[in-house]
Specification:
Blueprint (H helix, E strand, L loop, with lengths): L7 H21 L6 H18 L3 H5 L2 H12 L2 H24 L6
Helix pairs in contact: 1-2, 1-4
């Protein structure tokens, strides 16, 4: 069975979907980002792209870098700092648990 060739419009739509998916994942991984921040950011991107007729990569560049910029702008500094501290504690706990895996009797 022959593979169907995408039209240029289909290829642009697929690229847009990939950019948005990566942006959302990277944004969600930023310290202090919650569902409301992700929804607000997605709305900003989609509105801008619809209003200006641009694709997100042209308008905002790399999705990872844009996620970092958006998080810095939309997440209050104290909430982001608290999330970073909490993540650091969880990372240290995880590391300690991994080191104890080989110890018998625990």
């Amino acid at each position: 069975m022959a593979k169907r060739t995408r039209t240029p419009e289909e290829a642009r739509e697929k690229d847009r979907e990939k950019w948005m998916a990566r942006f959302q994942v990277r944004l969600a991984l930023q310290p202090g980002v919650d569902r409301a921040v992700v929804l607000a950011a997605v709305k900003e991107v989609t509105t801008h792209c619809a209003d200006h007729g641009e694709d997100p990569r042209t308008a905002f560049g790399d999705p990872d870098a844009h996620a970092v910029r958006v998080a810095a702008r939309l997440v209050p500094a104290d909430r982001a700092a608290g999330a970073r501290r909490q993540n650091a504690v969880l990372d240290r706990l995880d590391s300690a648990l991994r080191r104890t895996e080989g110890i018998t009797g625990l």
